[in-house]
Amino acid sequence: MDVIVGAGVVGLSIAWRLARDGRPVTVVDPAPATGASHAAAGMLAPVSEVTYTEGPLLRLGVASLRRWPSFAADLAADAGLAAADSGFTPAGPDSGTFGGRAGPGFTPAGTDGGFGISAQARAGLDLRADGTLDVAFGADDLAALDELAAYMDKLGLRVERLTGRECRRLEPMLAPSVRGGLLAPGDAWVDPRRVTAALLAALDRLGVPLVRARAGGLLREGDRVTGVRLAYPGDAEPGGPPELGADRVILAAGVWSTELADVPVRPVKGQIMRLRSPQPLLSRCVRGTVHGSPVYLVPRGDGELVVGATQEELGFDTRVTAGGLYELLRDARELVPGVTELEVADVVAGLRPGTPDNLPLIGPSGTPGLFLATGHHRGGVLLAPLTAALVSGAVAADTADTAGGAAMPAVPGAAVPSVPGAAGGAAGTVGGSTEADGSGRSVADAVLGDEGELADLCSPERFREIS
Amino acid sequence: MDDLIIAGEKFSSRLIMGTGGAPSLEVLDQALAASGTELTTVAMRRLDPAARGSVLDVLRERDIKVLPNTAGCFTAGEAVLTARLAREALGTNWVKLEVIADERTLLPDPIETFDAAERLVAEGFVVLPYIGDDPALARRLEQAGCAAVMPLGAPIGSGLGIRNPHNIELIVEAASVPVILDAGIGTASDAAQAMELGCDAVLLATAVTRAQRPDLMAAAMKAAVVAGRLARQAGRIPRRRYAEASSPMTP
């Protein structure tokens, strides 16, 4: 059995993916879906977020964004979400039975601008792909936008440069002072709270145990990690076993991963605000730089408008501050003057797990039995599908390795790959050899295929010499 | 190149770096390494000094002296408080004093800056105030006991270069403490110009951290500061209206 520590969007996505691969998994978290995923705005916007020196992050983001439609369609089905726009009500068990869909060729009913969003994913997860509009005010901001456009062009990214009036035709609630904008038509967004709720529902339906406890430490035998010690919240009677043995421990606890392993992850605080509007003010994500400070607004299907987010290096501090909210509102109002009329629904601060190079740590930790899936910084929601696939591949490779040439344990009829290149199915075809095809490629290469390069970008190996 | 000496402390690099604007800590780390800097300023109001893996760890790893700054303060009161917190947290009595007049221009407020400088000097701080390119204020701050003066070349982050070289020269002429050109540097020639004008050091951040290749720009700035310093020491030739042949015209 594999134990996944952390029930945020990353840990839950991994658990769901491994369960779909037919692997026995258990998730450990004292308070599922309450950390960074709860605070996140859910922008799936690798293109509009691109900056100099961040080419590798763009590659990961684009690769993961491509996975989102099928990830969401499968998730909506597994969680039993209804296609009708009835909010978040699970449908009957027959609406999307596990393993019953076609794989790569699956075309969801009701597509969205070529992105291929299923009706269930749109209604149930609020997944939308209507693009991000990055707007500028003064001549300085405009010049910066032009420079960004030139850089995006160099990278081959599809963006459209718009005049101020074109921006306001798309989004009439924008301030008249908007002088121009960049539209990244392929960028998408999703409601992370619905995603984690759907993942929990899907795991429940798949019978995956969720242990509400804190992983207080790692169990070790020799140099191998063999499980986790559990600490139960409060000093009430322990509600479960004091420890969990595991073939592998997958550490996906965001910034709290540092409690269990020496990983180069630091908290980067983000304050974020949710406003409620009777009518939607915006039809797509809008972001802008207001006198040098960046702000974004994400509209939800239910009329909510998310305003984010500060970036503060203040350690494990989740206080919502007057200054943080002031800056958010000041800048949001500059973009969309009408925001001041809206009801404040929620203010929250979360801790992003930042790494020195802003890239996540995904894959074998270097310690046998311990895998990492943390350090996703601002991109946990975006990178969740890719992370799940990479971990699935790494786990499959590890299973083949530790089996020492023996065939993979038979999987009870459930390992139906639903994503192209799914590693679970591919590993089944390896047939127990540690050499995939006699060409000297390792099992990991064969399993990951073109994911290999992306896996290398995220490999925890890159920090080995530093720490 | 000769050493830079501030408040009795020697630095072999005359390039002081800021940390704002870097896309990631790794990019910042590479840029700092390429710059050869030995003194780097960090905004204390946006940082928990006790947090692990922060920009302070990057500086410690590189053995770069930390110069805490009071960026984000609008009053002398806030600046003094921030300096005290920095002294307590980092164990240094050095402070780059920065009191901003407004968010739009980020120009320094001369009155609040002077007020804070007086109080901090009295409390035993080594004060390096960020100021406009005002020779009179620079002189007053030196008289008040500041360890250096840091006039701007242009507004923070603007990359406009040195807008009033004449005033920078006047400040340099009158000063007996180091003059550090702070803010406004856009590219290497700006940094070289500051040194040619007689500044003792250059402080910059955005020009490097927001460049397309921050490490490369940091190396350029390092070279520019050295080049400008050497040119200043060498003494430039007078400007002439007409040509003067460099090789003899007559046998």
From TrEMBL, chain A:
One of its GO terms (molecular function) is oxidoreductase activity. Residues 422-444 are annotated as: Disordered. It holds the Pfam family DAO. Residues 3-81, 123-391 form the FAD dependent oxidoreductase domain. One of its GO terms (cellular component) is cytoplasm. Keywords: Oxidoreductase. Residues 422-431 have a biased composition (Gly residues). This is Glycine oxidase. It comes from Nonomuraea jiangxiensis.
Automatic annotation (TrEMBL), chain B:
It comes from the Bacteria. Its main location: cytoplasm. Gene3D superfamilies: Aldolase class I (3.20.20.70). Residues 6-248 form the Thiazole synthase ThiG domain. Its EC number is 2.8.1.10. The keyword Nucleus does not apply. It is found in: Cytoplasm. The keyword Ribonucleoprotein does not apply. The active site is at 96 (schiff-base intermediate with dxp). GO terms for cellular component: cytoplasm. Pathway: Cofactor biosynthesis; thiamine diphosphate biosynthesis. GO terms for biological process: thiamine diphosphate biosynthetic process. One of its GO terms (molecular function) is thiazole synthase activity. It is an enzyme of class 2 (transferase). 1-deoxy-D-xylulose 5-phosphate binds at residues 157, 183-184, 205-206. Homotetramer. Forms heterodimers with either ThiH or ThiS. Catalyzes the rearrangement of 1-deoxy-D-xylulose 5-phosphate (DXP) to produce the thiazole phosphate moiety of thiamine. Sulfur is provided by the thiocarboxylate moiety of the carrier protein ThiS. In vitro, sulfur can be provided by H(2)S. Belongs to the ThiG family. This is Thiazole synthase. It comes from Nonomuraea jiangxiensis.
